[in-house]
Specification:
Helix 2 links the parallel strand 2 and strand 3. Helix 5 crosses helix 12 and helix 10 (about 240-260) packs across helix 12. The chain is an alpha/beta fold. Helix content is about 50%, strand content about 15%. A 7-stranded mixed beta sheet has the order 3-2-1-4-8-6-9. The protein contains 13 helices and 10 strands.
Length: about 325
């Protein structure tokens, strides 16, 4: 079983070093090649990855800036492995990652698979807080690979594997700026291929290092959810509506509590209390637990705001005409 690890990169030369370093420590190092696709970066990584050409089966390609989807497609076109594995450049890979993947695939054959993400002990407090908010069942419904979940598990591109022949059959990633990984997973399922979670094949996903960038990321994810619902009928679930309800209802509780009755402040204060308590028990760090309350508020309101904006523009104002535009993603 051979794998082609494909990593798109855009202006993040420092991150790619940590990722490549973790790949040199793999216990099953001989089973994969590494393909880096520089997506028109102003700060290319060619110089900083030079030492790793002697440590890994490493290939480096460049293209004009087109976005992560086309960059991954470019890498896939150069791949020689039976399976393609996509990592984001801000990931660190545990040393037994490929062992877990191979052990699982020997028992259960999958055409497409993904794994969870976890927080590394050396992450900053903000990174740990963001990791909490993006993996906690309280804020995400467990749809990113948790034990308890409110929707199907769809592999995401920070940790996604797929048979090369399947990838080619479904024509790879669409030219979407956001949500292209979920779109790929949904199309794979629609074609009847087997898709599953390998819980042991987790990665350490650093994500953003400050809350402003994190808000922008989850805002765009909220927009993408509306786009995906128009592309794939029936994929919008109640769990996806909860951040929008929270975005509207949470500040409303504060307004009602200050103008009508203090009783409305009880549920307003209950949410951060629950997050603070849960985050402390999960992280064992008071500063991280406090930051996790802010990260969770940002995650829910950012996603909810993007969702509401896209719903207004794509569905209310366009009155369904977006369906024709959405199909252009695959052209």
């Amino acid at each position: 079983m051979q794998f082609s690890v494909i990593i798109p990169i855009y202006n993040r030369p420092d991150e790619i070093v940590e990722l490549l370093e973790s790949l040199t420590l793999q216990s099953a190092k001989s089973v994969f090649e590494v393909i880096i696709v520089e997506d028109g970066s102003a700060m290319p990584c060619k110089d900083v990855i030079e030492p790793y050409f002697n440590q890994l089966n490493l290939h480096y390609y460049t293209q004009e800036n087109q976005g992560p989807g086309p960059a991954r497609n470019h890498g896939a076109s150069k791949a020689k492995g039976e399976y393609l594995i996509f990592f984001d450049s801000d990931c660190i890979i545990p040393s037994n990652y490929f062992n877990h993947v191979m052990e699982h695939l020997d028992i259960q054959k999958l055409d497409c698979f993904g794994g969870p993400d976890e927080s590394h002990p050396f992450f900053t407090p903000i990174q740990k807080a963001i990791s909490y908010s993006m993996t906690s069942p309280i804020t995400t419904g467990g749809i990113r690979g948790g034990s308890r979940k409110m929707d199907k598990f769809y592999p995401r591109s920070f940790n996604l594997g797929i048979k090369k022949e399947v990838f080619e059959t479904i024509k790879g990633f669409a030219h979407m700026r956001f949500g292209e990984d979920l779109d790929l997973s949904m199309r794979t399922m629609k074609q009847g291929y087997s898709v599953g979670l390998i819980k042991e094949a987790y990665v350490y996903h650093k994500r953003r290092t400050h809350f402003k960038a994190f808000f922008k990321q989850v805002f765009n994810s909220g927009i993408a959810r509306i786009d995906l619902s128009l592309l794939h009928a029936g994929t919008l679930k109640p769990v996806h509506l909860l951040p929008s309800a929270f975005t509207i209802g949470y500040p409303l509780l504060l307004i009602l509590g200050l103008t009508l009755s203090g009783w409305f402040l009880l549920p307003f204060l209950l949410f951060p209390a629950i997050i603070l308590t849960d985050a402390f028990f999960r992280t064992k760090k008071i500063p991280v637990a406090i930051l996790s309350t802010w990260a969770s508020l940002i995650q829910l309101t950012g996603y909810g705001s993007g969702f509401i904006k896209a719903f207004w523009i794509r569905i209310i104002k366009c009155k369904g005409s977006f369906h024709n535009f959405a199909k252009s993603f695959y052209d």
